[in-house]
Hints:
- The chain has helices at about 180-195, 200-205, 205-215, 215-220, 225-235; strands at about 5-10, 15, 20-25, 30-35, 40-45, 50-55, 60-65, 70-75, 90, 95-105, 110-115, 120-125, 130-140, 145-155, 160-170, 170-180.
- A four-stranded antiparallel beta sheet has the order 1-2-3-4, with no helix packed on it. A four-stranded antiparallel beta sheet has the order 5-6-7-8, with no helix packed on it.
- With about 240 residues, it is an alpha+beta fold.
- Helices cover about 15% and strands about 45% of the residues.
- A hairpin with a 2-residue loop joins strand 15 and strand 16.
- The termini are far apart.
Amino acid sequence: MRKFVGYASNGEFSVGCTGGTVWLYDKQGKELRKFKDITYGYTPMISPDGKIFVVKSTAGLLAVYSLESLSLLKKFRFSKVSDSQDDGFCFSPDGKLFLNVERQRDSLHSAISVYDTTDFSLVDQILFDEDMMISYIEYDKASGTYYVLGFARDMKTRVIDHGFIAEFADRQLKNMVSFPSRKKFIYHDYKHLEIMGFTEMVYGLSSRLKENLEGDLDKLKSMDFSLAKLHKQHSENGTAE
Length: 241
């Protein structure tokens, strides 16, 4: 297979992204289709039920594909902000919802948008103030909770003050725990590598991970950097807010 920037697999299908092309393979590694529907599309994710996959573009686009008909279902612009759209996203555990961290208004304002996966219509959108930036969101099966990773900005200096992990429920951030900005960058880089499928290409650019975690790509894959676990660790250390 080619060297991909982003990669996802569920055992039945694999999706690889190079930016301008999306490649689809079966479980034997046979190429099924290739798509050229969006630019800067690097990050793929397959739905829990294995019926669709989504590719996110850093230019503010989402492309939704069917794994049944092997075709494009929908492509749309989720924000007028056409850059910096490299934050995370996830499906709900039943695959009925798609939660996307977006930049809205401008690149300094983040939002969590919720889409109905039957037609990817917008169900809800939660906008955050400029001092609170969201980077990644994921669902924890054990607790049945969504967690987000982000950082707080000092509005006087307009630089990062500290990182945080919080539960996301009822359209709010709850039980927030904070940690120094240095850890935020490490966590951010790990989650970026993870959502990109631990590809060699992204790992090659992860100098902070190589320096701070002192492990090769296989070692990083084996680590548990789930937001639920990190939230628990920092809560036990007394950093809850």
